[in-house]
Amino acid sequence: MAIFVSYLNEACILLSALCFAIGWVQIRKHRVRVHRRWMLTGVVFAALFFIIYALKTFIIGDNEFGGPKSQRVFYYTFLQAHSILATVAAVLGIVTLVFALRGRFSRHRKIGPWTVVTWFVTAATGLVVFILLYILYTPGQAASLLHSYLGH
């Protein structure tokens, strides 16, 4: 089940990036309505990713790196960089969305390109983390926050 949820999560983040790419192309062609639909669809996939990820982390847990010990420092350093970047991308995404929803399009236009590029890099680094954790190597043990909280 945990592996399925991880694959579902990765699909959500990649679909969000694809939607954002299509939306970005649409606004460059001055197709505002189509842009809005693709961007909101991307937001839904991104939010779904976050919800699934948070629930998985709390209930099932995150997997430890199962690759060679010689690569652990690289993996965890890369993971931390990805996590920081993901946080920045999420905050930028919320700010960009709020500007759009409030009709502050001059600000939205200024921050939007930075947001989408940051999201693309985050999705790409997340894909690398996913490949290292679930495809290249066998995932390590999962440590659930729920079980840790309950003292198991």
Description:
The chain is mainly α. The protein contains five helices and two strands; from the N terminus they run ααβααβα. Helices cover 81% and strands 3% of the residues.
Low-confidence stretches: none
For the biggest β-sheet, the strand order reads 1-2
Number of strand elements: 2
β-sheet strand percentage:
under 5%
Radius of gyration: 17 Å
Question: What would you call the shape?
Answer: elongated
Q: Which sheet architecture does the biggest sheet show?
A: 2 strands, antiparallel
Span between N and C termini? Answer: 20 Å
Q: What class, by secondary structure content? A: mainly alpha
Overall mean pLDDT score?
Answer: 93
The number of helical elements comes to: 5
The ordered H/E elements are HHEHHEH
Helical amount among residues, as a percent range? over 70%
Q: What's a concise summary of this model?
A:
Helix content is 81%, strand content 3%.
Task: Give me some keywords for this one.
single chain, 152 residues, mainly alpha, two-stranded antiparallel sheet, 3% strand, elongated
Explain the layout of strands and helices.
Blueprint: H1 2-28, H2 32-59, E1 62-63, H3 72-101, H4 105-136, E2 142-143, H5 145-150
Antiparallel strand pairs: 1-2
